[in-house]
Design brief:
Blueprint (H helix, E strand, L loop, with lengths): L1 E7 L3 H16 L2 E4 L7 E6 L4 H17 L4 E6 H5 L1 H5 L6 E4 L6 H6 L7 E2 L23 E8 L10 H5 L3 E2 L2 H13 L4 E6 L14 H9 L6 E4 L9 H8 L7 E3 L7 H7 L5 H14 L4 E8 L6 H14 L3 E6 L17 H24 L5 E11 L4 E6 L4 E5 L8 E10 L2 E8 L1
Parallel strand pairs: 1-2, 1-3, 3-4, 4-5, 5-6, 7-9, 9-10, 11-12, 12-13, 16-18
Antiparallel strand pairs: 7-8, 14-15, 14-17, 15-16, 17-18
Bound molecules: iron/sulfur cluster.
GO molecular function: 4 iron, 4 sulfur cluster binding; metal ion binding; tRNA (N(6)-L-threonylcarbamoyladenosine(37)-C(2))-methylthiotransferase activity
Enzyme class: transferase
Organism: Paramaledivibacter caminithermalis (strain DSM 15212 / CIP 107654 / DViRD3) (Clostridium caminithermale)
Length: about 425
């Protein structure tokens, strides 16, 4: 049996693409091995959101070549798409695939040897169809991230993704539902609908919208929870909110991308909403779905961000009372407009702003979690927290990570758990109903 090894960088969409490629190799009788082992094929699924991703990808290519000088080395993903010539020039690379044609990976790998060098990257801007990649399972997981959409047409000024992933393409509804059925048969209880820009799902199709997909997934027996990965605020019209509110399987949690809480910064970022619109959406959500968890992403140190603009963002985040924020220090990405903007912010200022924002995020998270102390919530346990101490961890519907004492056979089940105390930003609970 031939062996293949994967190394994946980057986001959930990349992880989904890797899972799908693993299944293609397995269907063709390959054994998947750890990436420090000797394999016949090494696949590096790269990310290019930061320059660090590029560097890590190059390191892993070199390490793989050392593990087995006769292996076929394949580089796929966003970095390969953006800089295919640069990747081709790395010693040891045999095949470069980018963000399309991954469904043919085994066929292409088997047509080459360790001396070939083939660049298979096309102009992604010309790709109009969603590339069908399927998963039936996700190794060791109980929540499945399911890709429904590819590409982005937004062109935020700091982001390289539209150039790496190309224009929006929606997956056909029947293929999504077939995959949800297979995941349900394989014991998955929670589906997280994901994509590069899921708010644009359906814009290139006539027959379906994101809401239609959510409703169709809702009908699938065995699926008990539906979540969305990051969404743009503009998706959340009052009608959309009313509709999701009526769906009991839809988790009371939304990750609504904000990036900045200052209108001037948002304009420079080429984001398509104002803080006033964002505020209205959050108010509507909280009115309709009290206690909903709202999480977000923030970039600090964007070019031209003055002390006043940062202060404005800080105050807006405090006002929005997010239950979690992911803070990113702006890092210029070659090939994007913002990388050429004047008034780039110094690294030490970015670090101070980032620390301040992370501290605020932790305070807000603790204050959100505090509201649930002594409440009984359903937790989908996903894994051991500490095997030696027999503690397991999982998520509530409103995205609180909970640790509790529990047996191995609780993993993969939804169990009523009483929220007991918060220690070091972690909620500890007690399983009360098996
Ligand atoms: S919406 Fe903006 S940040 Fe998100 S992928 Fe598209 S361009 Fe990048």
């Amino acid at each position: 049996m031939k062996k293949v090894s994967f190394y994946t960088l980057g986001c959930k969409v990349n992880q989904y693409d890797t899972e799908a490629m693993i299944e293609i190799f397995e269907k063709n009788n390959y054994e998947v091995v750890e990436n420090n082992e000797k394999a016949d094929v090494y696949v590096i699924n790269t990310c290019t959101v930061t320059n660090l991703g590029d560097r890590k990808s190059r390191q892993f290519i070199r390490r793989s070549r050392k593990n087995n000088p006769k292996a076929v080395i394949v580089v796929v993903g966003c970095y390969a798409q953006i800089a295919s010539e640069e990747v081709m020039a790395i010693e040891g690379v045999n095949l470069v695939l980018g963000t399309n044609e991954r469904s043919r990976i085994v066929e292409l790998v088997e047509s080459i040897n360790e001396y070939d060098k083939i660049n298979y990257v096309d102009n992604i801007m010309d790709v109009k169809e969603f590339e069908e990649l399927e998963i039936d399972k996700v190794k060791g997981k109980t929540r499945a991230f399911l890709k429904i959409q590819e590409g982005c047409n937004q062109f935020c000024s700091y982001c390289i993704i539209p150039y790496a992933r190309g224009p929006i393409r929606s997956r056909k509804p029947e293929n999504i539902i077939a995959e949800v059925n297979r995941l349900s048969e394989n014991g998955f209880k929670e589906i997280v609908l994901t994509g590069i820009h899921i708010a644009s799902y359906g814009k290139d199709l006539k027959e379906a919208s994101l809401l239609d997909i959510i409703k169709d997934v809702h009908k699938v027996e065995g699926i008990e929870r539906i979540r969305l990965s990051s969404v743009e605020p503009t998706l959340l019209t009052y009608d959309f909110i009313k509709e999701i509110k009526a769906l009991p399987k839809f988790c009371p949690h939304l990750h609504i991308s904000l990036q900045s809480g200052c209108d001037e910064t948002l304009k420079r970022m080429n984001r398509k909403y104002s803080t006033e619109e964002y505020r209205k959406i959050v108010e509507n959500l909280r009115r309709e779905i009290p206690d909903i968890a709202i999480t977000t992403d923030i970039i600090v140190g964007f070019p031209g961000e003055t002390d006043g603009e940062f202060e404005c963002t800080y105050n807006f985040i405090k006002e929005m009372a997010f239950s979690q924020i992911h803070v990113f220090k702006y890092s210029p990405r070659k090939g994007t407009p913002a990388a050429k903007f004047e008034n780039q912010i110094r690294g030490d200022i970015k670090s101070i702003r980032s620390e301040k924002m992370i501290k605020l995020g932790n305070e807000l998270m603790n204050s959100y979690m505090n509201k649930f102390i002594d409440k009984k919530l359903n937790v989908l346990f996903e894994d051991y927290y500490d095997k030696k101490k027999s503690t397991i961890e999982g998520l509530t519907t409103n995205y609180i990570r909970v640790v509790a004492e529990g047996k191995e056979d609780f993993i993969g089940r939804i169990i009523k758990t009483k929220m007991r105390e918060i220690k070091n930003d972690i909620m500890f609970g007690e399983i009360i109903d098996e």
